[in-house]
Every structure is written in structure tokens, then in C-alpha cells.
Amino acid sequence: MTDSKTPNAIPTLGRYPQLDRVRAPHDMRNLSVEQLKQLADELRAETIDAVSTTGGHLGASLGVVELTVALHAVFDTPDDRVIWDVGHQAYPHKILTGRRERIRTLRQPGGLSGFTRRSESEYDPFGAAHSSTSISAGLGMAVAHHLRAEEDPAYRERNVIAVIGDGSISAGMAYEAMNNASHCGPGAERLIVVLNDNEMSIAPPVGAMSNYLSRLMSSRKFLSLRELAAKMAKRLPGRLERTAKKADEYARGIMTGGTLFEELGFYYVGPVDGHDMNQLVHILRNLRDAEDVGPVLLHVITEKGHGYTPAESAGDKYHAVSKFNVVTGEQKKGPSGPPSYTSVFAKELVRQAATDDRIVTITAAMPSGTGLDKFAKAYPDRFFDVGIAEQHAVTFAAGMATEGLRPFCAIYSSFLQRAYDQVMHDVVLQKLPVRFAIDRAGLVGADGATHAGSFDIAYLGCLPGITLMAPSTEVELMHMTATAIAFDEGPIGLRYPRGAGLGLALPAAGEVLEIGRGRIVREMTRQSGPEQGGIAILSLGPRLEHALKAADMLAAHGLSPTVADARFAKPIDTALVEQLARNHAVLITIEEGSVGGFASFVMTHLAKTGLLDRVRFRPMTLPDRFIDHNTQDAQYIEAGLDAAAIVDTALSALGLPQSRQMA
């Protein structure tokens, strides 16, 4: 087997002569524009070939191929910093920065991350996988370089380039950074923000910013006039040069009506064709060599999926793909299986909305990812995509709740973290009945730690008065969706995982559950004392399947446990917890979340009632570290949350040899 770190691991070696010569960006610095064009064509083909074998975020990467080549050819990376917002478009960047030999390990166990990562390469100055962080980070770097240069005259100030998409720049954090940049003094002068405007992030962009950028795109291109005027002005005496600059500003105002970015203190350049290497190279060189222009915003127009016909013609521009046939673009789909948790939630919500016109839905630029595209199709007037603005989404939902609507705010667990203050201050503190549909709870596979929903039980459960549910199956998810709709007493959340359900037969409709009430799923023997039955397993969420497998394995050892489904992380079913603690020697809790979540709530109650003194309590949670990208099953084995780990935890608590020793 070929080592993935050796050149022989590149199946296309010899096919792309220009790309074969580039081992690192410095190999590009003396190439002509024509050679860079050829390099871009070869880089695009290599990216397509690589992602066809791994799957991943293809469309965004294809859209920035020319921009990637131009940036590395013009700037002195890695000393000059290039920051890719989100980072899912950085596959071509990885190929050019010494990682071509490993690009076919992308998103694979032990392979390259699907996003930028500081520990992976010196060419990744900032790790990313969530949007809208690049300008803030870049500004911080630029200011740090300036302060260091002031202390050390031998230190050369670096250029810092933040590449951000038109979807990401709609988020509030991007504006906060731009607003601050104009007040950071000379430290911000080497900051260049490249606005990669492809009119599409994951879904088509929404809101005023999208319309504003469209108007800018259609305005007269005046870059060449400005560059000519600037060069002429430098040859004039100081007083006349200042007059010329004022005339330039006045002319720009006439031609474009001014720009929001210039009002924020940025020198606006564009729009520019992001696939025209001639334009990109010359403009980037001018910006690299310019002095005293302050922070710059370069507006680049690109096409997501550019250069690959199947991607260009697809509705989602091949944003995220499975393995596919390079020639036809046909994606390799696995055998059809049970519906996903996401689709089960969406279907039940659509069904319920037919008879309840108070149900409204909100998502933050993820209509298809959250399943709400189905709701949007059925009830477009009650569906709201607010763009990449989770904070606004939550408070927007809170406002709806004050007026008697039943808002469902559907956001991935890891993205809801971005709106934590709004959840606490605007929803929970006011006891508003906002429904949080928390998708991608638990470990998520190839997207890795950045997208894992590891912390929502802990960060939401500590808030007074919130109700948190976690379905163990897709049937339970239907019941919990119905329960959330009927619950008007305050905020309520239901967390559910990425991926397919168990394939259970679904009822015609979900049933409303009693709040804070769990259920006994399997009671192998009648319990009548602390040493009889021995073991109780209390599961929260989809680990119930593995708890039942563990019960079968323990039964084979003559240790038949009781298995319970908690259903609610908050409020916990105190009667069920007390019953399990009184009637068993060992009580195990298991959850797909971090330390500080469901187990902590159970343990606190046991301690307060004195029951912790009489039962051997063993919490099973995600470990106190990040789990890297892998398959979901492999991640849970690594985390120690599979059936075998449950068995070993139970045997250890009883002082018995673990399963491998008993086999």
C-alpha cells in the first residue's frame, strides 16, 4: 500500500505539468500570467479529481481557483497571511501549499481536515469552519504585525488578506470587524478584504446585502480610471495631489452613489471578474504595493462550481457532494435506508402546520440542511430564512413568540452556540415559548469537531426554566415535535442527530408527551432491592439503541439490566431517577454530549436526596477533548459511547472482569 505522504500517492502526477512543478507557493512567484492561467486550469482539474474520490465541499472550491492562484502568486505567503472564511473553499489552497500528496485523504480518518486548520499547515494562519470570522481575525493579525514592527525596525509588516463570501459578509460579526477597522489606525492599513461574491453560499443569499451587491455589480467599472488617476496624482505637488484625491472621491460618488464599505472606512475596489487572471494579478499587485490607502475591500465576482459543467448546472452548484463520477458528475449514493431525523422532524412539522397557523419557522441560511425547505414550499408565508445571522434568528423568533405565534428556530447545535446570549437574555429570561429544533446534535462524522453538537445540553441545561428533550428514535422525534408545538409555557428545545433513524414504522401523527417524564424500556427482572437486578442504564437520546445492545450482552453474562429512556434532559424525571437508584446497585447514564450535561443534572439530584451514597453512579459522556473527523460510528467508539463500552462500565462498577477478559 502506498504511503499517502509520498509523491507516488498522487494518481495524477505527470498529467498536469504546471501543477507538478509547484511544491509550494514560492514556485509560482516567477510564473507569467499565461502560466498562471494554465496552472489554474490544472488545479481545477486536480480538485475535481480529488473530491470525486473523497466527497466534500466542491462548488465553493471551484469558484475560487483563479483567486487562490493569484493570491499565492502575488503575496509572500505564508509570511503574508491569507485567511479563508469558513474554510470549505480551501481545497485548491491546500493543494498549492504542500498538501497535494495528501489531498485524497480529505475528510477521511486521519487525513486532512475539510477546513483550514492551524496545526495542519503554516499556510493556514487561522482555523475556521463557521462563517464570518475572517475579517476580525485578519484585523487582529494586521494590528499585531504593526505593533511588532514598531518595536522591531527589522520586522517587515505583513499583508493580511481575508477572503469572505457574500453570504458570510451578511453576518453581524463581519460588520463589527469592518466598523472597527477604520478606527484601528495604521495597523489596519495592510488589511485587504476580498469579498468573494458568487451570489450563493449554501442556499441563495437573502436580504438587503444581496440586493445591494447586485446593484454594485451592475454599476460602471471604474477601477482602471482610478488607478490611472492615482498614478498621475503621485506625480503632482502635494497640494494638487490632495485635490486630485478629492476629485476621485467625488467622481466615485457620482458613478456609484458611494458604497457602504467606503462609509465604513474601506477603500472599495471592484467589481472585478474573479475568473480573469489578468485582472486579478494586476489588481492584487497594485493593492500589495499601495501605501496609505487604509483597509481595502476588493469585490470579486465568481461563479460557484465554475469550470465544471455538472456543478455549474446543478441547483446547489455541488456545494457538498458525495463521491462522484468525474465525467458525468453522477454522485455515488449508498443504498436507500430509513429517513433521516431531519426529514422526520420536517415532515411532522409540515403536517402539524396544516391545522395550526400559529406555527412559523426560522432558519439561518440552512433551509435544506434543517429540512425547512419542505416547510417553505408548503407554507412560504410562514417560513423565514434570515441569512447567516443566528443571533438575529433567535431574537426574531422571540419577538414572534411575544405576539402569540409558535416559532420554531431550526439551527445546528454548533451554530446555536453563536446565539447564546440571545437564547439566555431574549428568550429564557423572558420565558418566551420559542421552540429550538437543534439539528446535528452529537458527533457528526466527516465535518469533525467544528460541527459536532457536543455542548448544547450543557450550555442550555444550565439556564433556568428551559425544557430540553432528546429523542431516542425517529418515532420519539415525532412525539417531541408535537410536544414542542403544544408547549406554550416557555422555551423548549429538541436535539436530534445527523443521519438516518432506525427504520421504525412511523405513526400517522406525533403524540404530546408529559413534560419531564421518562420511560422504562426494558425491565428484565422485578426490582425489589439495591442488589437485585444489579444494573440500570438510563439513556438520553439515540444511544438507547446501544444501551439495549449492551443489555443483551450483559444478559449473556447473567446480568440482566434495566434500561430506561430519559426523554428529557431538563426537567429530569426525578421519580424515575430515584426508582433506578434505589433498586439497583449500579446506575449508568449515557448521553451524546459533553461533561456538564444530563449526567450532571442526575448526579446533583442524587446527591441532594442522599441516593448518591447508596448507588454506584457512572456517567458516560463525550470525553473532555475534541473528536476529529471520522465516521460517526468510529467517533462514538473512540469516545467510549458504544455498546461494548457500556458493558465494560457496568462490569467495572460491579468489580467484575471486563467483557474482553470474560470472553
UniProtKB/TrEMBL annotation:
<dbReference type="InterPro" id="IPR005475">
    <property type="entry name" value="Transketolase-like_Pyr-bd"/>
</dbReference>
<dbReference type="InterPro" id="IPR020826">
    <property type="entry name" value="Transketolase_BS"/>
</dbReference>
<comment type="similarity">
    <text>Belongs to the transketolase family. DXPS subfamily.</text>
</comment>
<feature type="binding site">
    <location>
        <begin position="167"/>
        <end position="168"/>
    </location>
    <ligand>
        <name>thiamine diphosphate</name>
    </ligand>
</feature>
<feature type="domain" description="Transketolase-like pyrimidine-binding">
    <location>
        <begin position="339"/>
        <end position="504"/>
    </location>
</feature>
<dbReference type="InterPro" id="IPR033248">
    <property type="entry name" value="Transketolase_C"/>
</dbReference>
<feature type="binding site">
    <location>
        <position position="308"/>
    </location>
    <ligand>
        <name>thiamine diphosphate</name>
    </ligand>
</feature>
<dbReference type="InterPro" id="IPR005477">
    <property type="entry name" value="Dxylulose-5-P_synthase"/>
</dbReference>
<keyword id="KW-0414">Isoprene biosynthesis</keyword>
<comment type="pathway">
    <text>Metabolic intermediate biosynthesis; 1-deoxy-D-xylulose 5-phosphate biosynthesis; 1-deoxy-D-xylulose 5-phosphate from D-glyceraldehyde 3-phosphate and pyruvate: step 1/1.</text>
</comment>
<dbReference type="Pfam" id="PF02780">
    <property type="entry name" value="Transketolase_C"/>
</dbReference>
<protein>
    <recommendedName>
        <fullName>1-deoxy-D-xylulose-5-phosphate synthase</fullName>
        <ecNumber>2.2.1.7</ecNumber>
    </recommendedName>
</protein>
<feature type="binding site">
    <location>
        <begin position="129"/>
        <end position="131"/>
    </location>
    <ligand>
        <name>thiamine diphosphate</name>
    </ligand>
</feature>
<keyword id="KW-0479">Metal-binding</keyword>
<dbReference type="GO" id="GO:0008661">
    <property type="term" value="F:1-deoxy-D-xylulose-5-phosphate synthase activity"/>
</dbReference>
<comment type="subunit">
    <text>Homodimer.</text>
</comment>
<feature type="binding site">
    <location>
        <position position="88"/>
    </location>
    <ligand>
        <name>thiamine diphosphate</name>
    </ligand>
</feature>
<dbReference type="Pfam" id="PF02779">
    <property type="entry name" value="Transket_pyr"/>
</dbReference>
<keyword id="KW-0786">Thiamine pyrophosphate</keyword>
<feature type="binding site">
    <location>
        <position position="198"/>
    </location>
    <ligand>
        <name>thiamine diphosphate</name>
    </ligand>
</feature>
<feature type="binding site">
    <location>
        <position position="198"/>
    </location>
    <ligand>
        <name>Mg(2+)</name>
    </ligand>
</feature>
<dbReference type="Pfam" id="PF13292">
    <property type="entry name" value="DXP_synthase_N"/>
</dbReference>
<comment type="function">
    <text>Catalyzes the acyloin condensation reaction between C atoms 2 and 3 of pyruvate and glyceraldehyde 3-phosphate to yield 1-deoxy-D-xylulose-5-phosphate (DXP).</text>
</comment>
<feature type="binding site">
    <location>
        <position position="166"/>
    </location>
    <ligand>
        <name>Mg(2+)</name>
    </ligand>
</feature>
<dbReference type="InterPro" id="IPR049557">
    <property type="entry name" value="Transketolase_CS"/>
</dbReference>
<keyword id="KW-0460">Magnesium</keyword>
<dbReference type="InterPro" id="IPR009014">
    <property type="entry name" value="Transketo_C/PFOR_II"/>
</dbReference>
<keyword id="KW-0784">Thiamine biosynthesis</keyword>
<keyword id="KW-0808">Transferase</keyword>
<feature type="binding site">
    <location>
        <position position="390"/>
    </location>
    <ligand>
        <name>thiamine diphosphate</name>
    </ligand>
</feature>
<dbReference type="InterPro" id="IPR029061">
    <property type="entry name" value="THDP-binding"/>
</dbReference>
